[in-house]
Structures are given as structure tokens and as C-alpha cells.
Specification:
The structure holds two protein chains of two kinds.
Chain A lengths: L10 E6 L4 E6 L2 H7 L2 H12 L12 E5 L14 E6 L6 E6 L3 H6 L5 E5 L6 E5 L4 E5 L8 H10 L8 E4 L2 H4 L7 E3 L3 E3 L4 H7 L2 E6 L10 H17 L1 H10 L4 H7 L15 H6 L2 H7 L1 E5 L9 E7 L5 E5 L3 H8 L7 H14 L3 H16 L21 H9 L4 H5 L2 H8 L8 E2 L2 E2 L9 H9 L13 H4 L15 H18 L12 H11 L5 H21 L12 H4 L2 E3 L2 E3 L3 H15 L9 H7 L7
Parallel strand pairs in A: 1-6, 7-12
Antiparallel strand pairs in A: 1-2, 3-4, 3-6, 4-5, 7-8, 9-10, 9-12, 10-11, 13-14, 14-15, 16-17, 18-19
Helix pairs in contact in A: 1-2, 2-20, 2-22, 7-21, 12-13, 12-14, 13-15, 14-17, 18-20, 18-24, 20-22, 20-24
Chain B lengths: L9 H16 L9 E7 L5 E6 L13 E5 L14 H7 L7 E5 L2 H6 L18 H7 L5 E2 L8 H13 L2 E4 L3 E6 L2 H23 L4 H10 L1 H4 L21 H16 L9 E5 L3 E5 L13 E4 L8 H12 L4 E5 L2 H6 L13 E2 L4 H6 L3 E4 L5 H11 L1 E4 L3 E6 L3 H23 L4 H4 L8
Parallel strand pairs in B: 5-6, 13-14
Antiparallel strand pairs in B: 1-2, 1-4, 2-3, 4-7, 6-7, 8-9, 8-11, 9-10, 11-15, 12-13, 14-15
Helix pairs in contact in B: 1-6, 2-5, 4-6, 9-14
The chains are: A alpha+beta, B alpha+beta.
The structure holds iron/sulfur cluster (SF4).
Chain lengths: 617, 440
Amino acid sequence: MPEPLYGFHGRYLEIDLTRGESRVRPLAAGLIADYLGGRGLATRLFYDAVDPLVDPLGPENVFVIAASPLIGTNAPTAGRGHMVFKSPLTGVIGTSNSGGTWGAAFKATGYDAVLVKGRAPSPVFIDITPERTEIVPADRLWGLDAHQTTDALTADVESGVRPKVLCIGPAGENLVRIAAVVNDRNRVYGRCGPGAVWGSKNLKAIRVAGKAKIQVHDKERYQSGYDQALYLMKQAPVTKRLLRELGTSGLVELINVINMLPHRNFQDSLHVEENLEAISGERLAKTLLERAGGCFLCPIGCQRHTRIESEDGTSEKGEGPEYETVVMMGAVCDIYDLEAITRANYRCNELGLDTMSFGGTVACAMELFESGRLRPEEAGGLDLRFGNAALLEPLARETAVRRGAGALIAEGSFRLAERCGRPDLSMSVKRLEIPGYDPRASFTQALGYMTSPSGACHLRGGYAVSLAFFGGTKEIPRFSLLQSPLSVRAMQNKGILQDSLGVCRFTGFAFDVGPWARMMTGVTGLDFSEARLEEIANRIATLERLFNVEAGVSVEDDLLPPRFSEIPIVVAGEERVVSRDAQERMRRDYYIVRGWDADGRPTESTLRELGIRRGRS
Amino acid sequence: MIHRSWTVREDILELFRSIGRASMTYDIQDSHSGNMAIRLLDASGGDQIIITATGSQKGDLDPSQICVLSATETDYGYYKASSETDIHQRILSIEGVRASIHAHTKDLTIATLDDADKPNRPPDFVPIDPLGFHHLGDHVHVDWIAVPSGSPEMADLIPKRLADHPATVIQAHGTFARGRTLKEAFFLQCVANNAGAVIRAAKTLDVNVEELRRRMKADAGAFFAYPPVPYAVEGDEFSEFPEESEILKEFHKTGARVFESWLSPFHTGSMSVRGVSDLLYAPKASMPRDVGGPLLKVPLRPDSSDPPELALHKTIYAETDFQTVMHCYLPEAEAYAHFRYPGEDAPADRIVPIDAEGSFLYLVIPVVPPKTDAETLIRLLHDYKLVVVRGGGVWSVGSQSLSEVLHHPSSLREICLYRIGAFEQGLDLRKMEPKKAKKW
Ligand code: SF4
């Protein structure tokens, strides 16, 4: 009799869209022991399956979505999925995470991961249940937005478990490099352009439905971790109150207090107070918010379900905006109009666009426009000056279909700025737009952006702001050259573990990995002591780097744009830049603590110690 | 005739003030008790004693309350000086001694009380904690004196006691300690009081203290983890990482908290922050706000000359990704490490919090024997962040900050106090412990 499996199903789906085939592959317990699930498992399966030099929009590119062993338990927030692919925006590993309910629904189909390769000759969607996997023609869905697609794919189900849909909108179909993949209508795998990868495969959606359950090995041990996690979440101000009452945009004014809120494409961090108040979480809560909501099993509930009433008496409903959207489409574009931002946010969710890269690219276009580098005729007649709130919504529509100025935005800020002869005006690292935290206000944040495997991502690079200002006992110095490399590693590792456990980043405001370690050990019966989790996080980080190095990343890619070393902002009364020397020193030290050589390549001994196999199987 | 200024140098005034304030914080004086003295040569070579004035408040010393007098003869300085100046003068004439302090070390004073008929010769005090044993010796004299304050008998006896012991106790009064510097004398006072606190807590917990003393006497090497480093009188002003201003501030803040919250006696324990190739190291972690201690930058690479304390910091960093480490000597934990549940033969291998916050922060806190190998200690630190070593203090680790690593022993102190308090009231600790803690 086979050994019972705890926490995972022991199999994953491999789908070849070129051949129109799906196969069930066994998943060894060893892979879970070494890579957990979610981001770790997806990275390993992806690394094994793809040539790092492939064209991200070619059929050889692969994407993997994986769930974690915690999904299927009642662990708080454990319902998130993680997707890994080669990014058409950055050319390096794309790694993106989404909440909602899709991740949990996918696990209930009886699989731990799904790997998709090839390209379908015409549009398709994939339908997964425990009983069968089908590749279904989707010509009728092509051209629909994410909401319409979701409605269409849930409407024709007569009985049984209500399916969940993960899909792209027109932006993905049109290979927009900043296109997202959307689940539960408004939750997105946003960063690095996964929507374009799906579009390039002619894949419109993955629909899942099932009731497969997992077994828990040691309920008492699991429960002790669960109890502790819940207690701490009920205690910490951010998880017990702030996020529910104000959403993530409750951070807007807080981040401004620490001089970290960017303005006008990161030209400065100076804002008029009333302007900020107009786009704050407090304002959102008082005006547009209908109710808070939560992802699967989330006791925090940061989602903003909002409604905009128009003067003509009509209204529209949607979700958001989040902090990043408010800052990137708002303050970074010198726009302080909450309704305009919210409408544009609705459109991005429907069209399948990453609001962060969209905002960052628009800001870049605005600076190019104002400096004469982007001519009005190239801008398709749009007035691309900073502060023009009216252009957000139409520009989002145009971007999704690559029309007018939208065709420029669709390429992301780096390609746009390069085309205009000023690549330095793209506020990006590895071509991924820098999020709404100015790196000059924290060395840790700066180094996080520099070394994030997917380019400038606050979540993959280490959520520095969570420690820089409201880290509680873990609050760290913001300008320590000595400590930053180690702090960044620690924060990146914590993020890797959260992504691999399928849980929300915001739980980290309440606790580290201790309770998760007990829950994972309790669920799987495998040794997931904290020491082991630390080793796993290091393994995943190095595997991601290995892929990037093989994809051609060099030390020069691990630097900030020149603006951050040349133009100071004022932080707590002092002028601050992240000098080139400081960047180089932190980068060198970061490589050392990661066990990589001076060129940022994982050394053979590091690979050996972490048990990482080089090359494809 | 020597013309001497009544006004002491600014640095000496600051030293007296800061040690005076620290002695109040550590609660080893009442508002006006005790006295402090140092001996030095003035600018013109005059042999001086600088001593606190009689009746002065040690927490708020004015320049006029620091008296300057001759070390060798009676002069006008005596008019205002401490009533125990004669004692200090004699202590300060012991070879190598340049400072002395008398303090009302309440824990030690209580631990050395007896109800025997007087006059008597009370038994010596025998510490059972590593700091007490290694810094005070295997016994501390306790004397009953008919007039136990400023009397000629004291002036006669105390210097004799201190000739071969760093500290001595006058029963029901307090402790006299000597040092090469005022800080060293203060260090010994704090260590002495801490030793008393350990005994008091152990007795409250029905620990068989006499049996422990027998075992310690038979094999002190096995009884303790390793000897703490001898007290260094030099280098407190070293600050080898001034460029890391934020971290420097954290060290000072944390050091002050360790001292003020009684997590480790003055200038004991250690803490560090890891860098990429160096660690920033405070070998005297417990540092009152305005006293400080050395702040060193030390290579992470192990060195055979490293003292065991520093070597363990390095080993923890070599084997883990932790970024901060702290070691301190928490008296309640030291005592608790010897606790046996009623009816059990061996001391408990864990401390189970019974308070709400403690039990959610730490299901259990491991207690390990003194000679636990580094590998086991590190494994436990990984899982629990906090480990009590019987006869070896408390180790804690942090993933990011000094503040984090400080929180562990600070919580542990409360956890121990609640357990000790419950036990004192005759409550059944087993019944109060969360059931799930048994599995851990
Ligand atoms: S905190 Fe917000 S993003 Fe995280 S799981 Fe809950 S609702 Fe989703």
C-alpha cells in the first residue's frame, strides 16, 4: 500500500498546448521537503522545464502555478497561488503571487501544481477537475475582459462545485508586456507581465473546480501553530485593524511621514499635505468604500470593495485601489484624484493590466513628454503632462489594445525611455518599474530592489518598509550599509517562505515563520523546523538567481537607475541619495551573504551545500 | 601645605553622577544610602580620595557633594565626607585598589539574614550562579557588627575582609566592594546583589540550595557552562563603528534596557549584530545610559584566542542566518533552571509560560544543562529563539534587530516572575500550563 500523503496530493499537471495534451506527473515528497510549495515548488518545476534563453513570448516558455501544503487547511490566508515564468518585460524570472480563492480551488482539484508549455493553434481555456483535464476552444472568449470571461466561464456550469476562473483580458491577448493574469475578477498576478505569456500561448483562462481534500499528519502540532498565529494577528495593529479599516492605501500618509513616498517619476518626495489626504486610505474609507473584504480564509480583510457614483446618477462597482495603485497612478504621476485613479484601477483589472507598471510607465512617459523627448504626435495627441488625471482611464484602454500612446506604454517604461533616448528616465531595475517606496529613504529598500530576482519588486525584494517604520521589535536601521545586506536577505527569505507557503505577506506584520513552521510540520509530518525553512529559503533564492544568471543577468543589472545616486531627497532633514559606492558595497556584501561570487553567480560550493542540481532534467 | 581644590574634575564628577544614578536604577541604594570613593593623584601629585558627601542623594549628586580629601591624613575634606570615609580610606590603601563602594544590596542582604542570637558569626554566603562564583569567589564573608554603620569595628574589619575578597557583607546592612576603578567596584556590587537574587528566587521555588552548593563545591567546572571573562577595566570608551550611527544608537539603547530592566547585572552579558565579514560586539552588554562600555568590531572568522562567549556568538552566526545575538544573566531564569516539579527527581528541561502573552510568544523555553554542545544550543535557538543554560545564562537570537533580541530575555523575566509568584502562592503550575506545551 502506498504511504499516505499529508498536506499534498503528490501529483501535478503538465499541459502541452502545442500538442493539446495533459499528463499527470508524480510529485515526490522530496520536492516538497526541499521547496515547500508555491513559489519554491513552482521555481523548481519551472527551472527544470525551461531553457533560460527562450523567447518569453515563444512557445518554449513555460509557466508553473503551484499551491502549498498549507492550502486545504484552515491556516489563515492560506489560499494564495504563485506563478513562475520567464518575463517578457524583464527577460529574467517572472514570479508573481495572487490571493483570492483560486489557489485554494485549484488545490481542491487534486493537484499541487500545473505546468503549461507550448502554444495552442487558436485560443483555448483549460478546464481542470479531479476527474479530467480538458483543453477547450475559447474563440468565443477572446477579446472579452477579465470580468466578462469569468462570468462566461462560470455561467455555463450547471451543478456541482462552483468553479473559479483565472484568466487574461485584452492586454494579455495583445502581448502587452505589463499584462496581468486575473482571478476572482479583481485579484491579480500582476507583476512581470504573465498575461502576455498566457496570450502568447493563446491561453485565455484556467477554470478549476473540485472537492479533493488533504490529510493532516499531526493535528495538535498544527493547531498550536495556528493558535499562535491567530493570537498574534489579533494583537498586531496592522493586521487587527489598519488593513481592514483603511486597506493598504492606509499607508499613503504613513509612508509620506517617513519621506518615502515618491513624486513625479521619483524626481522628489515632496507632496502637498491636502493632496495626499485626497488619495489616502482614510479618504477612500469615507467616500468610495462600500465594504472591506478578504481573500480565502483571511482574518485581516484588506480588500476594498468600492463604488463610484457619477454625476449622471450612474454608478460602477469594483475593487481597490490598493496603495501601490494609488501611489503609482497617483502621486508618481502627480495625480491626486481618487475617483480617476479608482476608475483607471477598475479598467486595469478588467483589461488585465498591472497597475504598478502601468502607473510607473505613465509617469516615465510624462517626464519624457515634458522634457520634449516624447513628441505630442507620438503621444497620439494625448496631453501627457504630469497631473493630468483625465488621461488615466483612456490610456489604460489604449494600452490594452496597443493603440496610440498606449502602444508605447504597453512596452513598459524601460523600452519606452530607451526608444526616446533617455533610458535613465525609466525608474526600473531589470526593466521592472520601481514600486511606491523611494529607495533613497532606506538602504534596505534600495538593496531589495537591486537584488529582487524579478526586478524592482517590493515583495520579492524584501518588504523593507514593514521593518523600516513599523517593524515593532524588528525595526531596523534605514541607513546601515553594514546591516542592509543581511536584513535584505532575511526579509527576502521571509517573503520566499510566505510565497511558498501560500500565505499573505501581511501576516508578516504579526509574526515571522515560527507558527508556520509548526503548522507545516503538523500538516506534512516532515521536518519543517525554522532551521530547515531557512535553508529552503536560501535554496529557492539561489535557484532563482541561477536561472537569472543563465538568462544573462550581470552585476550591472543589480543597480538602481542613476537618479537615485545623483538627485537627493530630504529624509528627516537630511539629504539622501544611494551613492554608486554604497550600492556597490551593499551589492558585494549581499552576494557574499548569499554565497554567490563577485559577479553574482552562485558558487559551486553554495549549489552543493544547498543541494541544487544545475541543468535541466 | 597642599592646596587642594574642592571642585573635582568634570569627568570624575560625571563618573560619580552616572554610577550614582545607575545604583538607584539597580535599586542597590535607598535615596541617601551608601557611598562611593576613589583614590587618585591630583595634577600636582597630591594623593587624594574623592568621596561622596554624607547624606548625599546618589541619584542626584551636586558638585558640592563630591568631597576631596587627603588619602593619607585628616584634612578639611572630612567635614562633609561620608561617615564611612575611614573605612573607604583603609580599603583604598589596599594594594591595587583605587575605588570602593558601599551599597544597600537588598537581595544579598536579605539572602544573608539569620535569626541566630547575637553576637554571632553568620555563615559565609555561597553563590550558586556563574557570575557570583567566578567574580566573587566560592564564598563571601558575612559579618555581624554591633554598630554596623561607620563604626571603628567596621573600619577595622572590612579592609581586612577585602584584602583577599572583592566584596564583603555586613549583615543586615549591605555590601562593601573594592575595585581598580569605580566601575569595577560597582560591577561587583551588582554581581553580588544578583547572586543574592538568584538564591532568593531559588529558595522561593523550593530548590534545594544546599544540595546545589555541595555539587558546585565538588565540581564547579561541571556545575557551570564556562567562566565569564574577567572584568576588564580598560576600553570602555572604544567605539569601533562610529560610522554606523543608527546601529550605535541601538547598542546604547539596548544596553541601557538590559541594565535598567535587570536582565543582567552591570557590564555583564554580551550582544552583537552581524555584518558580512565582521560582527559588532558589545562584550559588556548591560550598560547604563551614561556609562557605556566597549563597542567592538570583530572579524566573524573564528580565532583560537576568542573567549568562549565571543566564540559562541561567532558559531551561532556561522551556523545560522540570525543577525543579532544576546547573552545575559537573568537571575530569575538562573534560579528557575534548577526548579523541580514537586515529586520529580530532575530539574525541569523547560520553562512553560503560564501568562497570556508569554504562552503565545513561547510555548515553552528550553532549559539545557551547563555543558550543552553548541550544535544543540543552536538547534534550540533556531526553534525557540531563547534558551536558558543552567549555570550559563540566557541566550537569545534575532532575525533582524537588537530590539528583537532584547525582547526575548525581557519576556522571559516576566514569565519567570509569574511562575515564581504562582508557586509562592501554592498554585499548581502543572494545571496552569497550556496542555499543548507538553509536546514541545
Ligand atoms: S490581507 Fe488582504 S491581500 Fe492578504 S490575504 Fe487578506 S485580503 Fe488578501
